[in-house]
Amino acid sequence: xxxxxxxAGLPQSLAGSLRGDIAILRLARxxxxxxxxxxxVDGIETFFAxxxxxxxxxxxxxxxxxxxxxxxxxxxxxRTTVExxxxxxxxxxxxxxxxxxxxxxxxxxxxxxxGGGLELASACHVRVAERSAxxxxxxxTRGIYxxxxxxxxxxxxxxxxxxxxMMLTGRTYDAAEGQTMGLSQYLVDDGKGLEKGLELAARxxxxxxxxxxxxxxxxxxxxDAEPAGGYLMESLMAAIASGDEEAQARxxxxxxxxxxxxxxx
Length: 265
Ligand code: 1HE
Fold this sequence. Notes:
- It contains twelve helices and ten strands.
- It has helices at 38-49, 73-76, 81-99, 116-122, 139-142, 150-158, 160-169, 175-181, 193-205, 209-224, 227-243, 245-255, and strands at 4-7, 14-19, 22-27, 57-62, 105-109, 112-114, 126-130, 134-136, 173-174, 186-188.
- Strands 1-2-3-4-5-7-10 form a seven-stranded mixed sheet, sandwiched between helices. It has a three-stranded mixed sheet with strand order 6-8-9.
- The mean pLDDT is 96.
- The chain binds 3-methylmercaptopropionate-CoA (MMPA-CoA).
- 3-methylmercaptopropionate-CoA (MMPA-CoA) binds next to helix 2, helix 3, strand 6 and helix 5.
C-alpha cells in the first residue's frame, strides 16, 4: 500500500493526506461530533481547490463515533437573515466543488449523518455506510431549514416524499434502511468503511479521467435535461470518450485479449 503523506494548510478540524493517487479528507472535530463550522467548510473548499494534479479520487470520512452532526448550531444564533443567505450560498459553492469537482469522491459514513452532514454526504458520488450510520434532517424540529443543497440533492437519492417526512416528523433511518432506499450504495460492518472506501476509490481511479469526468459532470446534467437534449448530449459525450487515446488503447487491450473480462460479482 502507498505511504500516506499529510496535506498541509487545513484547519485543525480537518486532516488531509495523500496515499498515491488517492486523497483522504477526515472530518477531525470529534469533540463536537464533526459539526461543520465556517472554518471547516472553508477548509473543505481549500482541500478540494488545491488537490494535487495526480489525484484521481478522494475518500471523505469522519473521526470519532459520528460522521457529522451537521451545521455548527452555535454559529446560527449570531447571524442576521442576510448573513444566513450568504452562509447557505457559501455551502452551496463549497459542496459544488465536491459534486462538480475534478475527481470522484467516496464518502464513508458512520454514526450520525444528520442535517448538514447528510447534505455533505449527498454531494459525494459514492456513499459507503457502516452499520452504525443513521440519517436524520432535524432542521424541521430545530425551526430552521436545510441550507447546504439538501433540497436538491437528497430528493434525488430518496424522493421528495421521504425527505418531507424526515423533516416534518423528525424520522430517522438506520443504515440498512438507508441502503435500501438509496442513501448509500454500499453497506459494511462497523470499522470496515474506510477500507471499503479506499478499495472503491482505487477502482474509480483506474478509470480514464475523461470517463470519470463524464460520469460526474455529464450524467447528472443529462438526467436533469429534457430527453431530446439529453440523448444528444449523451451521443456527443460517447463520441468524445471513445475517441480518447486512452479509451482506444483500452479497447485494443480487450480485443487483443489483454484486458480482464466482466465477470459476475
Ligand atoms: C454540536 C453539534 C452541532 C454536537 N452544533 N455543537 N444538527 C443537529 O441538530 C444534531 C445535533 N447533535 C446531536 O443531536 C448530538 O450531538 C449527536 C446525536 C450527533 C451526538 O450525540 P452525543 O451524545 O454523542 O454528543 P453530544 O454530547 O450531544 O455533543 C458533544 C458536543 O458536541 C457538545 O458540546 P459540549 O461543549 O457540550 O461538549 C455538543 O453541544 C456539540 N455538538 N452537535 C454545535 N450540530 C446548512 S444548513 C444545515 C442545517 C443543519 O445541519 S441542522 C442539524 C444540526
